[in-house]
Amino acid sequence: MKNLLISALTLASFVAHAELVDRVAAVVNNDVITLSEVETRIAPDLQRLRSESDLAKRGEQRAQMVKRGIEMLIGEKLMEAQVRELNIEVADSEIDLGMEDVKKQNNISSEQFEQLLGQEGYTLTSYKAFMRKHLARLKLVNLKVRSKVKISDEDMKAEYARWSHDEAAEFEVHARHILVQLQPKATTEQVELARLKAVLLMEEAKKPGTNFAELAKQKSEGPSKADGGDLGFFRRGVMVAEFEKAAFTLPVGGISDPIRTKFGWHVLKVEEHKVLAAPPLEEVKDQLREKMLRGQLEKYTDQYVQELRAAAVVEVKL
User: Fold this and answer.
1) What is the pLDDT of residues 67-84, one digit of tens each?
2) Residues 305 and 211 in one domain
3) How far apart, in whole angstroms, are the C-alpha atoms of residue 260 and residue 195?
4) Cα(313)–Cα(288) distance, integer angstroms
5) How many domains does the chain have?
6) Torsion angle of alpha carbons 53, 56, 62, 66, nearest 10°?
7) Full residue range of the structural domain in which residue 11 is found
8) Domain check: are 208 and 268 in the same one?
9) Would you give the end-to-end CA distance of the chain in angstroms?
10) Other CB atoms closer than 10 Å to residue 304's CB: what's the count?
11) Facing residues of 34 across strands?
């Protein structure tokens, strides 16, 4: 009896320790989703969150990210169960083609690709495993959802009317920036020191009579340094989200507070705005069709996942 009691206490202690080390975030049927699995899935978002100095705000945003990550993984687990049930397989050659497509779309070399993977918390092996699951889910979506996606001429005309109305108020931004670089695995102290350096550069840039382009030539650590930090004109959807938000919010001549991206801290100055005219339907038909197809596919995929969820036993623990 004594030995049994000791064993029971030891087991209870082990379970309690495991709960502290890696909490259970959710259970999908008999498949456990751990907190570490969620954190790995949302690692790029968590990395960007490190620049938030307000601890309360950071905690709130982290909780929202974790919640979204859990929901994302629940959907993926449900779909992966269907992949296994339907014996859907992905060949190594398909993974290689998928990775080559990513490199081509981003115009990067294999070495640059691996560096970017490292910045996002992946190794080549772990990314291939991620890609295998991703491609398998795409095959499942094509099998179960794709046939529902249809776009009529009337749908296209209505979408163009909405789009051209929005585009009429759209503009391009011409901007310059000064970059204080950060390594992907920078410590909290290094991040803060770089931020303080960016604050000093911002204050210098805002002094009357300061030539921002000359300051960028002298102090920026980015590849556009030689051009005075010139980024040229760009539309929405081109720059990373944090950078774009500042660029399209500032007035002409405005200088931003330091902006954190995966590249480091940026001080941004808006030089010009250029109003965009909406092109004719024929020029943008393919682009709009692709956007509408993606929208419908996402809608019907979400419906399909909800159907799977209704038929499963799902328990969220966090």
Assistant:
1) 999 999 999 999 999 999
2) no
3) 8
4) 38
5) 2
6) 170
7) 2-147+295-316
8) yes
9) 36
10) 19
11) 24
